[in-house]
Amino acid sequence: MASFGDKLKREREMRGVTLDEIAESTKIARRHLEALETEDFASLPGGVFNKGFVRAYARFIGIDEDEAVADYGAVSHEVPPPEDQFPLEVHEKPNRELNPRKSQMPIVAAAAVLLIVMAGAFVWRKHHGHEGVLPAVAASSGDTSDQAQVADEPATQTTSEAARAEHKSKMLAVKETVTTQQAEEKTEAAAAERRASTAEKPLSPEHSFFVIIKAKEDAWISVVADGRRVSHGILRADKQRFVRAARQIVLKTGNAGGIDVYFNGKAMGAIGNESEARTLMFTPTGAAQQ
After folding, report:
1. pLDDT tens digit string along 242-254?
2. For the chain, what are the domain ranges?
3. pTM for this structure?
4. DSSP characters for the chain?
5. CATH architecture, domain 4-85
């Protein structure tokens, strides 16, 4: 009867899985995975950590977790811990998306509004200040003759015209500043659009191909599409996976007789026997078995 470590290694190799793949997904150090396969338990952290490593290893390659922990306990003379004592899970790498560049338009608009308010306040104070001074001077002089009133009217009119001219000049300056900022913003947006148009565009559906994997019984599978892993683990009976790619799809399975594979909707027929590990590589022109 094979030892605990030999059994783990044999199951892993039957599925074409490397220790590096398990370490990357479970975040368990490769040296700890090697210690499990060689039964070098003294090199492991001990306690619930060891059993958690065994459970994560078994889950990744698709064998019974409880049976693997029990086998480990038999050779290490440890009792399996409760299910919720070591919640180690297998995690897929997230698809990171680039954060789009934030627009500066709200900042520019706020600055423009602030400039307009400040200019309006300045002109209002200057205009109303002149209007308040002139009546005060006239009242303090005590001159009530028609000649004094006639002399005040042209002065007030001249002051108002000057204030309006100055206000108009400031508003034109503010408008010119806002227009210039808007033009710069449009130029930058156009440049960004040109850069985006020159970037690599995704292929349209008619330039891609697809593969469907249907499980007749529970089967371990691993699927990589255009260099990105899209599926990994047990595909349960009567379930299926649909995968589309532009350049290449690589399918690995530990139970070739337990799945049906369709390329662009066309059944491929038998790809192997039950519990047989197989690897298939698909390109837009067809599929090759390994």
Report:
1. 999 999 999 999 9
2. 4-85, 105-198, 205-289
3. 0.38
4. ---HHHHHHHHHHHTT--HHHHHHHH---HHHHHHHHHT-GGGS--THHHHHHHHHHHHHHTS-HHHHHHHHHHHHT-PPPPGGG------PPP---PPPPPP-HHHHHHHHHHHHHHHHHHHHHHHHHHHHHHHHHHHHHT--SHHHHHHHHHHHHHHHHHHHHHHHHHHHHHHHHHHHHHHHHHHHHHHHHHHHHHSPPPPPGGG-EEEEEEESS-EEEEEEETTEEEEEEEE-TT-EEEEEESS-EEEEES-GGGEEEEETTEE------TT--EEEEEETTEEEE-
5. Orthogonal Bundle (1.10)
